[in-house]
C-alpha cells in the first residue's frame, strides 16, 4: 500500500466520495482564500504609539511587532487546523478571527485601557471554558437548540457576508456617509478594474466546471495585476501588487504574556471581556460549522452537524493555544466554504491547509504574495454559490420566515455572523408566541433568546465602556 492509499484510508477519503487530489486542491483553495489573515491579523493587533491601540512592545518597532504577530498567527492557525484534521476529520480551517481581533485591539486595549497581557489572559480563559463545555457536551447541546429556520438561514447569511467582504476588498463596494455603502469608482480604480475582470473570468471557469477554477481565477488575477503594473501604465503604488516586509521570528516577547496578565485583572471588566469573547466566538464558530456544513451536505435531516463536538474541540484548543502564543481568539473560518465547494470532504483538506500555514513560516515576508483583492474573488464566487441554501427555508410559514430573514439580513448589514444568529434566535420564540404556536417552543429557546438580549445590552449598551 502506497503513501497516498494510506493517507486516503486514514481520512476515509473514498468513503466520503472524494479523492486525494480533490482534497489537496480543496486545501489549496481554502488556504488561498484565508491566507490574508497572516497579514491582516497583525495589522489589526499591532499598536502604534500615540496613534493606534493594540499590542506595543518596548524596544520593538510596530513593523517588528507585526512580524512577530504574523508568525504567531501562522502557528495558532496551523495548530488548530491540525487538530481539526486529525481529531475531527473535517475540511474546516481555523485562524484568528476577524472582528474578534478588532474587539481585542480597539475595545479591550483601546477603549478599556486593559493591558494586552490581560486581554490575552481573557482569551486563554475563554478557550479553557470552551474546552470544558465541549468535553461535557454542553456546546453541542446549545447548538442543537438552534431553531431550524436559523440553521437553514445561516448558510445564505454567510454567503452574503462573504460577498460583501470580497466586494469591499476588490473596491467594488465602498463606504458612503449618506448611504453607508455604494458602488466604488470601478472605471477609474485599477484594483476594481482588475478585480472585476478576474471575478468574471472566475465565474466563467466555474460555470464550465473547470477543476480548480477558483485557484486559477485567483492566480490569473494576481498575474494580471502584476503585469499591468510592471509592463503597463499602472503606477506601482496603485495597490495591484502585494508588498513584503522584514521578518522577526522571535516571538518570546509575546508568547506567555498572558501569565503576567492575570496579575492585572479587574474582576468585573475582565468577566465582561471574557463574556463578549465567549459569545462572539461561540456563535461565529457554530454558525460557520452549520453554514459550511450545509454547503458540503454534512447536515442530517434535522439540520444538525453530526459529531459537531469534535470540530468544536478543535476550535477550543486553537483559541487556548492562540492566546498562550499571543494572538486573539481562533475560530473556524467561513472561507472553508471555498474548499468545500471545490470538493473537500475530510480532514485531509484541513491537513493541507495546516501544512501550507507551516510552510508559509519560511516566507513570512511573502505571505501576502496574493493581494487581498485577488484572493477575495473567491469569497464573492462562494458567496453567490451559498445563496442557493435559501431554498431549504419554508418561506410560506411566517414563523419560519421571520427568524430566517432576520438571520440573513443582519449578518451582512451588521458585519457579524454572531449578530445575525442572535437576531434569528431572539425573534424565533417571539414570533412563535405571537402566532399562538407555543407547542413549537422549548425552554432552551427562551434561554438562548434571553442570553442574547443580555449580550446585546453588554455589547451595544455602553456597559463595557462605562467601566473604564
From TrEMBL:
Main location: membrane
Keywords of this entry: Cell membrane, Membrane, Transmembrane, Transmembrane helix, Transport
InterPro entries for the chain: Azg-like, Azg-like_bact_archaea, NCS2
A cellular component term, taken from the record's GO annotations: plasma membrane
Topological relation to the membrane, as annotated: Multi-pass membrane protein
GO annotation (BP), single: purine nucleobase transmembrane transport
TM region(s), chain numbering: 24-48, 68-88, 95-113, 119-138, 150-170, 190-207, 214-235, 353-386, 406-431, 443-464
Subcellular location as annotated: Cell membrane
Parts forming coiled coils: none
Segment forming the signal sequence: none
Keyword Ribosomal protein appears in the UniProt entry: no
Family the entry assigns: Belongs to the nucleobase:cation symporter-2 (NCS2) (TC 2.A.40) family. Azg-like subfamily.
PANTHER family documented for this protein: XANTHINE/URACIL PERMEASE C887.17-RELATED, XANTHINE_URACIL PERMEASE C887.17-RELATED
The protein's name in its UniProt record: NCS2 family permease
Source species taxonomy: Archaea, Methanobacteriati, Methanobacteriota, Stenosarchaea group, Halobacteria
Amino acid at each position: 500500500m502506497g503513501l497516498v492509499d494510506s493517507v486516503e484510508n486514514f481520512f476515509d477519503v473514498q468513503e466520503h466520495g472524494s479523492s486525494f487530489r480533490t482534497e489537496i486542491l480543496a486545501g489549496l483553495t481554502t488556504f488561498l482564500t484565508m491566507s490574508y489573515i497572516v497579514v491582516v491579523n497583525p495589522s489589526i493587533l499591532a499598536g502604534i504609539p500615540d496613534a493606534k491601540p493594540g499590542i506595543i512592545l518596548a524596544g520593538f518597532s510596530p513593523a517588528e511587532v507585526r512580524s512577530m504577530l504574523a508568525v504567531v498567527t501562522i502557528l495558532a492557525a496551523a495548530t488548530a487546523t491540525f487538530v481539526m484534521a486529525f481529531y475531527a476529520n473535517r475540511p474546516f480551517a481555523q485562524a484568528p478571527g476577524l472582528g474578534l481581533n478588532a474587539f481585542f485591539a480597539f475595545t479591550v486595549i483601546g477603549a478599556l485601557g486593559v493591558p494586552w497581557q490581560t486581554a490575552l489572559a481573557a482569551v486563554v480563559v475563554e478557550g479553557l471554558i470552551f474546552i470544558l463545555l465541549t468535553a461535557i457536551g454542553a456546546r453541542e447541546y446549545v447548538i442543537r437548540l438552534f431553531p431550524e429556520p436559523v440553521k437553514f438561514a445561516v448558510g445564505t447569511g454567510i454567503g452574503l457576508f462573504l460577498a460583501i467582504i470580497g466586494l469591499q476588498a476588490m473596491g467594488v463596494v465602498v463606504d458612503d456617509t449618506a448611504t453607508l455603502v455604494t458602488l466604488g469608482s470601478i472605471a477609474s480604480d485599477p484594483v476594481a478594474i482588475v478585480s472585476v475582470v478576474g471575478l468574471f473570468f472566475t465565474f466563467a471557469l466555474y460555470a464550465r466546471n473547470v477543476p480548480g477554477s477558483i485557484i486559477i481565477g485567483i492566480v490569473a488575477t494576481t498575474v494580471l495585476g502584476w503585469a499591468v503594473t510592471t509592463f503597463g501604465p499602472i503606477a506601482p503604488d496603485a495597490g495591484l501588487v502585494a508588498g513584503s516586509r522584514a521578518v522577526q521570528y522571535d516571538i518570546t516577547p509575546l508568547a506567555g504574556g498572558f501569565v503576567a496578565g492575570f496579575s492585572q485583572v479587574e474582576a468585573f471588566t475582565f468577566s465582561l471581556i471574557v463574556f463578549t469573547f465567549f459569545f462572539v466566538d461561540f456563535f461565529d464558530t457554530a454558525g460557520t460549522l452549520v453554514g459550511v456544513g450545509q454547503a458540503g451536505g454534512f447536515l442530517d435531516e434535522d439540520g444538525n452537524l453530526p459529531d459537531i463536538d469534535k470540530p468544536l474541540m478543535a476550535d477550543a484548543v486553537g483559541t487556548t493555544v492562540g492566546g498562550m502564543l499571543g494572538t486573539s481568539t481562533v475560530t473556524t473560518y467561513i472561507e472553508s466554504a471555498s474548499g468545500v465547494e471545490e470538493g473537500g470532504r475530510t480532514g485531509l483538506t484541513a491537513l493541507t491547509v495546516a501544512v501550507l500555514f507551516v510552510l508559509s513560516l519560511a516566507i513570512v515576508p511573502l505571505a501576502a504574495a496574493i493581494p487581498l483583492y485577488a484572493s477575495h474573488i473567491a469569497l464573492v464566487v462562494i458567496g453567490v454559490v451559498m445563496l442557493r441554501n435559501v431554498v431549504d427555508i419554508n418561506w410560506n410559514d411566517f414563523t419560519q420566515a421571520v427568524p430566517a430573514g432576520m438571520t440573513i439580513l443582519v449578518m451582512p448589514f451588521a458585519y457579524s455572523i454572531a449578530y445575525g444568529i442572535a437576531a434569528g434566535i431572539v425573534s424565533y420564540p417571539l414570533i412563535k408566541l405571537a402566532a399562538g404556536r407555543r407547542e413549537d417552543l422549548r425552554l432552551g429557546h427562551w434561554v438562548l433568546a434571553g442570553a442574547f438580549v443580555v449580550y446585546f445590552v453588554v455589547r451595544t449598551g455602553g456597559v463595557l465602556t462605562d467601566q473604564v
